[in-house]
Predict the structure.
Amino acid sequence: MDGPSRTATQDLSPTEFASAVTAITSAFGDPTRREIFLFVHAHESVTAGECAKRFDLHANVARHHLDKLASGGYLEVDTAKSSGGVGRPSKRYRASEPQVHLNVAVRHDDILVALLGRALALLSPAVAEQMAEEVGLEYGRAMAESIEPGETHRSFQGALHAVADALSAHGFAARAEHGAGENLQIVAENCPFGDAVVEHPVICAVDRGIVRGMLANLYGPTAADTASSRPQGDEVCVTHVTL
């Protein structure tokens, strides 16, 4: 793959790294594969069983994703005989190189975001927040509809991972994880809205609407609330999602 390369964990911003990984895995047509690639990249090596447990997949499904990444040259496979030399050889997958190739331009529409913030400032806080969430809801539905029919998810957890992947592709550097108790949440380490959201934190309602809109199409009706946000001084933005 042509294009400049930079060390993923040192030189790329969260937005650039997320966009680069999305670009790499988009050729395979499956958002789950992005999360698996990140999981392998964060470890020395993994097995299909370890991936299956991490992402709540059948072992054969996890192996299929890993083999696809390996066939594309993004992972390497080491085969080791099982203890005693009996049974099927064990495969361990590892990242082929510690770098991510970036050939996608990362855009920030700062002027449009600033305009949105100014427009929302003319409204009362309650009306502005409602409008921002409704815009996010409509946009989230459109994002979900762009996913091919074969990529829809029947499980709530699977749908949430798809939402995190889509948000990362839009610059949020997001991930899905378990929160307190059995609650699931979206954690975003980057905000593509830049400084405008600090001045107009009501824009955070757009994030909440996107999550609700995507899940409405991928899974069904859900409720979402903003548990923390970087504009309010928190380290990350967290959106709790409940059924």
